[in-house]
Amino acid sequence: MIRRLEKEVPMVKGLLLIILILTAQFMPTAASATDQLWPLQTKLWAEADKMDNLGHQWTVRIDVLEEVNLDGKNYFHIRELCYDPGEWDVLNDVYIRSTDTELYLYNGPGLGEALAFKLGPVGTNWIYDGGAKKKEVVAIENITIPYGGPYTAYKFKQSRLSDPSRYLFEWVVPGLPWIAKEEDHWVASERIPLISGLARLGMNPGGVLGDINSDNRIDLIEAIYALQIVANNRQQIGIDVGGSWTWIEEQTEIFGGSCHDIGETQTYSMMIDQNGNQLTLTSDSIAGITSASITGSITAYSVSLSGYICFNDGSTVHVISKLIVSIDGRHMNGTLSQDSDNLNYCTGTFKISAEKSP
What we know:
This protein is mainly beta. It is 8% helix and 52% strand. It contains 2 helices and 20 strands. It has a 12-stranded antiparallel beta sheet, with no helix packed on it. An 8-stranded antiparallel barrel has the order 13-14-15-16-17-18-19-20. Strand 13 and strand 14 (265-275) form a beta hairpin. The radius of gyration is 22 Å and the shape is globular. It starts with 13 loop residues before the first helix and ends with a strand. Mean pLDDT is 78; it is low at 1-34, 206-210 and 229-237.
């Protein structure tokens, strides 16, 4: 497991000793019965260097904020920033539980957890996300990343069953507490592949809240980040998103059926009913609906929705949406995917932006 630096380390040893200790803390070793696949702990941070096919380069940041008990199991609350360049205002909050050979993602209250990674021989695979996606161990190989190496890594391929051209490679090194390498071919774009490699690991000293770079200074980004942490700690059950919303969908991908053109937008009026952290989404602005059930939950600033819409011609559309809510609770941004067996309806993905009515 990762250990905290002891305060008694003689300062005369200087920077070299600290570097050696940090290197030893995060150096993968032979697994034992008590080792974790991802040895996470509160105050751990990691950064990955990332680039796309157009030459853009940026840094992805994750911080382990806290350990929480959800539905009787302990998870680490992890916040990811800047998955795409410049997206410091887009937060991805996940809750992760690790064993020695498996990693699980919390789906939400009463929704259980999803298997994210599982060590095993080449060919080990499973279906998840309601049968929409597959993940498989496709290789066990040595890799070198900005953080170091060579490391023995398990290479996973994530793919969409309805469209195998959408896939993502992830390399996991047992003992390193985050994805060691990623190669993203998921979105059809001239930017793919998006490639990232784990570059830096460290521990926040727990001094000034928000000093995520541990440089004894707080810049504007860190100040905003600190406010987000404070707000999140005060709103674990999820902030209030109940009420009327203007919901804008922009078509981003088409997999089948009758869809709008890429980039075309549609605007709807939506009503969100909130009971604690449970959500129900309804709308009277979509023509031809006979019945619908779209429900989900909010944890801190992360919204998850899923369900179905039945139309008067007997067709059914299934939808899944992931959204991030702004600090003031008045804006949401994220994605929505939908599919239907009826070719009169679109199977594809959408970019979502929503604004709460006054």
